[in-house]
Amino acid sequence: MRIIAGLFLVVFGGCADYQFTVNDRVVYTPAPLFSGYDIADEALNECVMVHIQEAGITAAEQLEALNCSHAGVSSLAGLQVFQRLTRLKLSSNSIEEVNALVDMTALLELYLDDNAVQTVAELRDLVELRLLDLDGNPALRCADLDTFRSRPALELVAPQHCRGD
Questions:
Q1: Which residues is 21 bridged to in the sheet?
Q2: What pLDDT digit, counting tens, does each position of 79-91 carry?
């Protein structure tokens, strides 16, 4: 019997997205994809939805990496539901405000290059950050970077106007 059960798992393991019935009885129903978020920015919403579908995400904490570069994102409101994100790539969008990221304490890598970010002071409590890319944000207040420059474990990529070279 164990051999049959093992064979069943091997053969049908790749079919986790399908409901199975035997003699008109449902014997397996896959968990529904996660939908407990409200993101008003259409481009960000679409990007998140695609990542959830591709990875089969059924709970917010399962989404650990998100790449929404070159997506036309202008607002991050609603993204904060994904508290377990460790890598967030938002390069080449039109993002001005980063307040939605304040409580994302699991972030290790944050790419905000080539956006319209003006201040990152509110991100000072993201102490786990190992990489913060802010290059290409011409209106960024350079004084906000002092907090990040004092962290030896953090690779900070500052915009040209904030570099001391």
A1: 26
A2: 999 999 999 999 9
Helices (H) and strands (E) in the chain, counts: 3, 7
Which helix (H) or strand (E) segment holds residue 8: the answer is helix 2-12
At 61-73, the pLDDT tens digits run: 999 999 999 999 9
State which residues form the domain around 126: 42-162
- Could you give the number of structural domains in the chain? 1
Is-contact 81 63, C-beta < 8 A? no
d(CA 96, CA 75) in angstroms, rounded, equals: 8
**pTM value?**
0.82
Q: What is the CATH number of the domain that holds 81?
A: 3.80.10.10
Q: Is residue 50 part of a domain?
A: yes
User: Residue 69 domain-assigned?
Assistant: yes
CB burial of 114-140 (b: ≥16 within 10 Å; e: otherwise) equals bbbbebbeebeebeebeebbbbbbeeb
Closest by Cα among 103, 69, 73, 72 to 88: 69
